[in-house]
């Protein structure tokens, strides 16, 4: 079988199969948020360039701007022409109605997020949403969230969140809700501090806690708020049990900086595709570099290691 045949075959994989395969390979699936077609083009170009699968994400706000059904239709169309697996996640979904809307639109996964509610209420509302989306299509992966990692993939003045999820609440939450993957608070945070955008500071994860939660939860684990995380921590977090890594703010920063630059280059330029082409390219570079890291390509063996 040739390489291209292998890739074509894997592109028919379900999200669950891809996650299982990547876990065995010591890799994680990159989740990249899109607000518009510029970002979508960038993520797909990166997947094509690296020949690595991707999970495209859109939060409620991003879906509202893009159109949930319109985004699903575009991803479906891209998938038919792309040799690598491309999946679509309804990120941070805060109501049963929005979860059902995404499930019916053809999303492969839904991040059900009632983490701002007290634990028991989070359990009840998440369980209800899991059952509802599985009734639409049992293949859809349901993600649930516990703990506080702040909100908004933006540039921030001060750190948010802080309290880590415990292995015991992770176990209880998975058992009571029937979720397929869990997003815990393990030192991660939505958004980036200014010092992180400037490259002067990095996020650090509690790697031991990740390993404990993985053991207790026994399901796929998702790391939200990955932007600005130390490279070595990413690799060690994957070794400790992280299966999906969310990157959003890094893409937004690259989008904004390259758009500013592109607009300033020639103030008489009015052709959108000429202005936007360099923006697609800049965002693509960020996505490709993160994908390679999550698949262990640029990191030496010693760094990959296992968590002590
Ligand atoms: Zn998130």
Protein architecture, described:
This protein has 308 residues and is an alpha/beta fold. It is built from 14 helices and ten strands. It has helices at 3-10, 15-25, 37-50, 60-66, 68-81, 96-105, 119-136, 167-177, 194-197, 207-217, 231-240, 249-265, 272-294, 301-304, and strands spanning 29-33, 54-58, 86-93, 109-112, 141-145, 155-156, 181-183, 192-193, 220-223, 242-247. The strands form two sheets. An eight-stranded parallel barrel has the order 1-2-3-4-5-7-9-10, surrounded by eleven helices. A two-stranded parallel ribbon has the order 6-8. The N and C termini lie far apart (39 Å). The site of zinc ion (ZN) has 5 residues, from loops. Zinc ion (ZN) is lined by residues 92, 190, 224-225, 246.
Topology (SSEs and partners):
Layout: H1 3-10, H2 15-25, E1 29-33, H3 37-50, E2 54-58, H4 60-66, H5 68-81, E3 86-93, H6 96-105, E4 109-112, H7 119-136, E5 141-145, E6 155-156, H8 167-177, E7 181-183, E8 192-193, H9 194-197, H10 207-217, E9 220-223, H11 231-240, E10 242-247, H12 249-265, H13 272-294, H14 301-304
The protein binds zinc ion.
Zinc ion binds at residues 92, 190, 224-225, 246.
């Amino acid at each position: 079988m040739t390489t291209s045949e292998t890739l074509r075959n894997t592109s028919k994989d379900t999200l669950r199969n891809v996650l299982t395969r990547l876990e065995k390979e010591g890799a994680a699936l990159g989740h990249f948020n899109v607000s518009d077609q510029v970002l979508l083009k960038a993520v797909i170009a990166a997947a094509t360039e690296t020949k690595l699968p991707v999970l495209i994400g859109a939060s409620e706000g991003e879906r509202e701007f893009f159109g949930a059904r319109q985004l699903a239709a575009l991803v479906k169309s891209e998938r038919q022409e792309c040799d690598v697996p491309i999946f679509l996640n309804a990120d941070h979904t805060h109501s049963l109605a929005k979860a059902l809307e995404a499930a019916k639109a053809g999303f492969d996964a839904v991040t059900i997020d009632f983490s701002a509610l007290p634990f028991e209420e989070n359990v009840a509302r998440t369980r209800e949403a899991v059952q509802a989306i599985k009734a639409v299509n049992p293949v859809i992966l349901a993600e649930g969230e516990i703990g506080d990692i702040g909100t908004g993939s933006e540039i921030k003045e001060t750190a948010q969140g802080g309290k880590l999820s415990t292995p015991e609440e992770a176990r209880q939450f998975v058992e009571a809700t029937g979720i397929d993957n869990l997003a815990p608070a393990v030192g991660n945070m939505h958004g980036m501090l200014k010092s992180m955008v400037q490259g002067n500071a990095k996020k650090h994860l509690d790697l031991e806690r990740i390993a404990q939660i993985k053991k207790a939860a026994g399901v796929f684990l998702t790391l939200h708020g990955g932007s600005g995380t130390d490279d070595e921590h990413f690799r060690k977090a994957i070794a400790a049990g992280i299966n999906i890594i969310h990157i959003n703010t890094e893409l937004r920063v690259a989008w904004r900086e390259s758009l500013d630059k592109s607009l300033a280059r020639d103030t008489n330029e009015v052709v959108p595709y000429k202005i936007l082409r360099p923006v697609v390219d800049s965002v693509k570079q960020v996505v490709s570099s993160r994908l390679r890291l999550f698949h262990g390509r640029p990191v030496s063996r010693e760094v990959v290691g296992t968590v002590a």
